[in-house]
Amino acid sequence: MQPRNMSMSGVVDLAALKAASEAKEKAEQARAQAARDGGPAAPASPLAFDVTEETFERDVLQRSTEVPVVVNFWAEQSDASVQLGSVLERLAGEYAGRFVVARVDVYANQMLFQQFGVQGIPAVFAVLAGQAMPLFQGAAPEDQVREVLDQLIAVAEQRFGIVGAPVEAGEATAAPAPAPRPATPQELALSAAHDALDNGDLGGAIQAYKNVLADEPANAEAKLGLAQAELLHRVQDADQQAVRKAAAADPGDVQAQIAAADLDLVGGHVEDAFGRLVDAVRRTAGDERNTARVRLLELFEVIGADDPRVTAARAALARVLF
User: Fold this and answer.
1) Is residue 51 located within the same domain as residue 193?
2) pTM of the full predicted structure?
3) Most buried of 75, 125, 201, 242, CB within 10 angstroms?
């Protein structure tokens, strides 16, 4: 992609997030409180740090009144976003305080993902004085990354008077580790569910994830884990040859198509699994149609709502239903 010509015409409306003036006011209040308390408002951070929905206001909005914040939306499963993140973090050290990098895991922070209007990863934004602007969508070579960062730094200084703070060698990549926080009961339960899944105890994992969701119905990580565990549990004793033979012999047999779709997904054939069930919905009516539709929605949970294959399959399902 070509580097953007930095301008305020690219500013993103952050809706529920705070505006620049409020961010500045809160930052000043935090510094004043820190002075009264005899310590910093928050633990010292390196030039590249993780941000969550809970810490976004403090670590990005407030900090953006003092230094340009480059927000990197990434996921461990995306090689391109991991590679771009490595480049940004290395350059953050090289630029030594003229900008910082805030990492946002898209799977763990869906609200931020949606509020920024991210269409896919990698996606990189800048936040200056509480205002956001897009920098990259997709991978970019390092020379273009440098050019955009140079433009960002110039805009920050010329339009906002934000210049960052010099960082001594060694401070750019390391910071004192915060004191460990005791795990909550929900986190312990979720960890136990993950361990059961990793150890192949699918029944135990299913029950453990259900326990987490009973107390926290909106827990996205538990929903994903439950969907994965239930899928693996369904296919663990399946005769793959017999399942596929039955599905090929009778395209109108909803249960046969559902069983084959499970195998497709486990085998990595995501589009095939989705297409098979969309076709099953198209061919059927009543309870059978609803059965196929519900299983398709369950498989969407396994892959994740932000995956483009899920988006395409949702559109296909809507065309069939409506």
Assistant:
1) no
2) 0.45
3) 125
